[in-house]
Amino acid sequence: MLISGAEAIVRSLKREGVKVIFGIPGGAVLPLYDALYDSDIRHILGRHEQCVAHMADGYARASGKPGVCIATSGPGATNLVTGLATAYMDSSPVVALTGQVARHMIGKDAFQEADIIGIVTPITKYCFQLTSAKEIPKVFKTAFTIASTRRPGPVLIDMPVDVQREQAEIEFTDELDIKGYDQNPPWINSDKIKKAAEVLAEAERPLILAGGGVILSGAHVELLTLAEMLSAPVATTLMGKGSISEDHPLCLGMMGMHGKAYANYAAIECDVLLAIGTRFSDRTTGKFDEFAKGAYKIHVDIDSAEINKNVRVDLPIVGDAKEVLRSLIKELKKCKRLKPRNAWFNRVRELRFAFEQGVEEQQGSALRPSSVIKLLNKLLEPGKSIVTTGVGQNQMWSALHYLARTPRSFITSGGLGTMGFGFPAALGAKVACPDKVVVDIDGDGSFLMTEQDLATSVTEGIPVIVVILNNSSLGMVRQWQHLMYKRRFIAIDLKGVPDFVKLAHAYGAEGMRPGSLEELEKALKEAMKCEVTTVIDVNISPEERVFPMVLPGRALHEVLANEPKS
Amino acid sequence: MNQKAEPRILVMIVEDKPGVLYKVSSIIRRRGINIDAISVAATTEPGISKMTFLVNVDEETMEQLVRQIEKVPTVISVGSSPIRGLYSKELALIKANVSKPGEREALRALAMKFNARIVEEKAFTLTIEIVGLPEEVSNFINEVKVITEIVDLSRSGPVALSR
Fold first, then answer.
1. How close B78 comes to chain A (CA, Å)?
2. Residues A24 and A46 sit within 8 Å (Cβ to Cβ)
3. Residue A384 CB: number of other CB atoms within 10 A?
4. Of A129, A180, A305, the CB nearest to B75
5. What is the pLDDT of residues A317-365, one digit of tens each?
6. CATH number at residue A258
7. Beta-carbon contacts of residue A97 (< 8 Å; ≥ 6 apart)
8. A to B CB pairs, distance under 8 Å
9. Which residues, in sequence order, are bridge partners of residue B15?
10. β-sheet with A234-236: strand ranges across
């Protein structure tokens, strides 16, 4: 039977189990939209293509399943770029479908033509351009496989409009159209597992660093088992937040530039470091050469290109985090009796106590970033809530104070640091998990970059809560100017514009501006029951800065635990 | 780990599809590394090509490049080696001006010394073909320049096999 390319695309999406698509139509994707008319796939109409990419990304991070977005050719496609780069840096399985001008018009600078393959090649795991309708099933199967296996990442399929219209006899197969890609996890070298188990069993002061790979691999149970077996404290990267419950006594929280000072000190004092599913970002390690300098370093990662890229390690183990941890646990069980590590445990507790002492406890009901986020810890139920963030101070305060207690419950743009990510990602996460409370902790600058999709949240019925930590400035830039540019503040004053409560109302959303912690608690409780998105504008002082902080280029032990006295 | 930059060959067996060269070269370009020579040609297997790049990098950088290129789905395998460890050859065609007396004879003698072949003789030009190690080819070209002016030159870039 003859079917159109567009129908073949919809059937291919159904075969991949796609239930929802985030998109914005345009001339070059109209055949596909016409085919979607007859399908039961839910289409969510965004208001900017950057947002539909972030929504697909948020959906993928919350659910673990690929998120799909559509944009038209030319500007529609180029608007996806920031979203794809964000997904690429954080290894998120996003499949982007872009319209393209008809095959015979490609290269003629046709209306709304952009060489999107040329543009996104460095920021996608792979990309395709359809050359005929017949190849659609194979290309889609391959695209979804590449996006979601091994180290996940975004894949783009460029679809010339005439291929969407082309009528052809189309066979649906599960065959892949790729020779140089193995979708199975790498084979694990058992000698290396033995060696790692030996080193860990003998360690006096072991430390585990858990990255986003633990969450992607679904290895959180194994991580906890291993940590408890070894009595090893666990620090996480920003992307690793939630890989271990942050109220567990072995969890130290985040390490790095704005990490917990005692987690940074643990990295300096440990004798064996087991890093799992992390690419040793400079934001995690500080100065590469100084990172965990004396420690024997074991690095577990599914991507062999991450081995020795930033930090030289003693024992690399290439493999899927869950499989490696299982093998390690099995190997360690053979050890007669694992050492109790009381001295190390006490030392870590001492470090924690020393640094927590230094942090002043908040008095009264003033709205401060830490108290706002600690209130969220109280109100949000573990396993029933998801927090997303913008980028900047709001993100680092969230990373420091929010207790992620389950995997996939903390969603943030780690690698690219994309301002404006939090709100559309929250919408995507809410679509993936409609029964969870989804809160975007954002900044005024960050939220303003994608606020137009309040329209999407209201019209598509996707209620989330936006808590704006509003300091009327580009706060993190202000903090850097304060600390490193002699307080010569320039281009950071947002002057309290717009009025976010009125803005929310203009979109048909709820808006509130609590004046105290008590009012905030009331507002949040109301928002959790509300059927539309609620924007809660929390005014904070622009003089609030994020500490601890390791200045850029410095080593972790040079951490400033508190504001330097000046 | 050898931190010294030296000419190294990167050999990739790839699927013969649009965009492979672009993806691979963008990985190299991103690190600000110049590709000194490229050759791409068919292998014995249909649909599979071999790409050979010449780059001047240290061992650590090369190791990273190899691992990142390995990840490209259309790249089937990657290998690298300092050029001195390989059996490597390059072809060059050189058209030289011989309008002045004595130039023709001098070039003939030079060609003989380098085991190069004269493939075309015209009234005012001589075309020479040389096959050899990339540095031999460079040396030959330099010596031709001492004798006369080069009108046109085509180098294939190196091809290589492991020993």
1. 10
2. yes
3. 12
4. A180
5. 999 999 999 999 999 999 877 778 889 999 999 999 888 776 666 667 7
6. 3.40.50.1220
7. A9, A23, A29, A32, A68, A69, A70, A71, A156, A157, A159
8. 44
9. B48
10. A251-254, A234-236, A206-210, A272-276, A296-301, A315-318
Task: Check A180 against B19: CB less than 8 A apart.
Answer: no
Please name the residues between 288 and 307 in chain A that touch chain B, using a CB distance below 8 Å.
Answer: 303-305, 307
**Cβ A333 vs Cβ A230: under 8 Å:** no
Domains of chain B, CATH where assigned:
6-86 (3.30.70.260), 88-162 (3.30.70.1150)
Nearest CA in chain B to A120: B23
Give CA–CA dist B7/B27, Å, rounded.
18
Q: Using CB atoms within 10 A of its CB, is residue A168 exposed (0-12), middle (13-18) or buried (19+)?
A: middle
One DSSP character per residue, A305-348 reads GGTTTSS--SEEEES-HHHHHHHHHHHHHTSSSPPP-HHHHHHH
What's the whole-number mean pLDDT along residues A157-183?
94
Residue A386 and residue A531 share a domain: yes
Q: What's the predicted TM-score (pTM) here?
A: 0.95
Which of A271, A272, A270, A252 has the alpha carbon at shortest distance from A262? Answer: A252
pLDDT for A230-250, tens place per residue? 999 999 999 999 999 999 999
Q: Which residue of B has its CA nearest to A145?
A: B73
pLDDT mean over A207-214: 98
Q: At what angle do helices A49-63 and A81-89 cross, to 10 degrees?
A: 30
DSSP A76-91: HHHHTHHHHHHHHHTT
How buried is residue A115: exposed, middle or buried, by Cβ count under 10 Å (0-12/13-18/19+)?
middle
Buried b (16+ CB within 10 A) or exposed e, A247-267: eeebbbbbbbbbbbbbbbbbb
A240 within a domain of the structure (yes/no): yes
Answer yes or no: do A142 and A194 share one domain.
no
| A210 and A294 fall within a common domain | yes
ipTM of the complex: 0.89
β-bridge partners, A377: none
Question: A335 with A391, same domain?
Answer: no
- Tens-binned pLDDT, residue by residue, of chain B (163 aa): 567 899 999 999 999 999 999 999 999 999 999 999 998 999 999 999 999 999 999 999 999 999 999 999 999 999 998 888 888 899 999 999 999 999 999 999 999 999 999 999 999 999 999 999 888 999 999 999 999 999 999 999 888 887 7
Taking contacts as CB-CB distances below 8 angstroms, the residues of chain B near A179 are 15, 48, 74, 76
Element (H, E) at A201: helix A190-202
Cα–Cα–Cα angle for A322, A324, A328, nearest 5°? 115
Residue B8 buriedness (CB in 10 A; 0-12 / 13-18 / 19+):
buried
Number of domains in chain A: 3
Name which of A94, A17, A84 is nearest A60 in CA terms.
A94
A283 and A404 in a single domain? The answer is no
C-alpha closest to that of A542 among A481, A470, A487, A468: A470
- Residue B2 has what pLDDT? 60
B109: region left, alpha or beta (phi > 0 left; psi from -120 to 50 alpha) = alpha
Average confidence (pLDDT) over A452-468: 98
